[in-house]
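=== RUN LOG ===
request id: a7f3
mode: sequence -> structure
chains: 1
length: 496
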Amino acid sequence: MLKKVDSFVLKSFIGPLILTFFIVLIILLLQFLWLYVDDLAGKGLGATVLVELLYHFSLTFVPMALPLAILLASLMTFGNMGEFSELAALKASGISLQRIMAPLIVFMAILSIVSFFFSNNVLPYSTAKAKTLLYDIKRKKPDINLQAGTFYSGVPNFSIKVTSKDPVTNSLYKIIIYDHREQRGNVSVTLADSGFMSTTSDGSGLVMTLFSGYSFNEMADRNTDSESQAHASRKDYFREQTIVIPLSGFDLERSRDGVFKSNASMLTMNELSHYIDSIGTAYNNKVKEHYNEYRSQKIYRLNSMDYLMKIPEYDSGTPAETDVFDVYGLLDSLPPVERKNAITRAIDYIKDSNTYLSQTGESHYWDIKILKQYEIQWNKKLTMSFACLVFFFIGAPLGAIIRKGGLGMPSIISVLFFVVYYVISLSGEKLSEENIIGTFTGVWAASYILLPIGVFLTYKAATDSSIMNADTYLAAFKKMKQLAGMLYRKTGFPGN
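=== RESULT ===
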């Protein structure tokens, strides 16, 4: 009996999970295309390049799509079972909600482990491939697309204009070409009645075949000064002329692997741990160096004023407090002229110290920020997997409570919870990166905030609570209104 129940629950869940996973993945890919459409459009990218780009980016979206798909699928599964009284029948047979959820809990645990290995091994590789390919595409210049009536400056050192263009034959009419390779302005121009344009077989050059025109070149006489210079010119007529313009940046140049190898999102946990240890050690050494440098400068300045103060060496512990002496008494004991000089020197020393501390503080701030980025990515490898369990324990009991299947209500609730999770996670990561809160506290904030909600919902669903029933809240409101009326009447106030 229980084996059939487990099989039934798993079959009811896996189908919606696969469906919702691909729906969410497609939505995320569409969002990606919307964000980068300007970088992709007009580049003349082949189908192979686009498929490769979408494939690698789809892999990077898996850790985000999987928790949302689990939440939506669990809501749909238990919502359908509640709507068609299947949960009621199972509970009437003596099977508790926890027992009904048991096979899915085991399945979620396995899926979380698979998600962790995916995030730790596949995700860094796919992220590196996707970001490198996107970087190469951004560097690629758009394909040449001459528009009639406007100058086209996409070809380096050339400006081209055509008055009209035949879309069928690709013939160009009334062509003007300015050659700026000498960097002397518009001193070289070619005009033609008609022509057509093509590229070389290897795509390294632009071939323009021109008919019935002339070339005008202005030649500078370097032997005369610039004020009295005579501008000689040359004009050549032609019936047919071929111009080959070299192209650079118009083809897709693939970068070598490992261009972004030190990026935190492209490393495994072992690599992240190595970077965290190395950066942390370098940061501690820098702090020690800066402190001892500041201490040496301070002792020199104090000795130059004949002040005696002992400042401790820096060690791993907390620096000891400096000796306390009577500043005002020492200042009052000085003659007026020396007192003024001492105050002036003290102000200069304070300004220098403030400048030094500001510079070193800024350096330390960026070192800590880089360190936090690696620590955040290390923790995210775990939170991405743990999110699968969190969303399941929210979706399954909530579906059993609302008893509504399909994609309507579950989709709204899923998006709401996912937005809350995403906002909390993003806020926690930003606070951690700014070193306002600890890394663990910030990255895991969404998990330990939403997990108690899932436990609470599971308890309410197991006890057949009606927290999602509007009649329950209406009845409570009516009781509160009646109680308020009784209190008003007893205290002499009107009852309504």
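=== NOTES ===
The CA atoms of residues 76 and 187 lie 72 Å apart.
The chain is about 60% helix and 10% strand.
=== END ===
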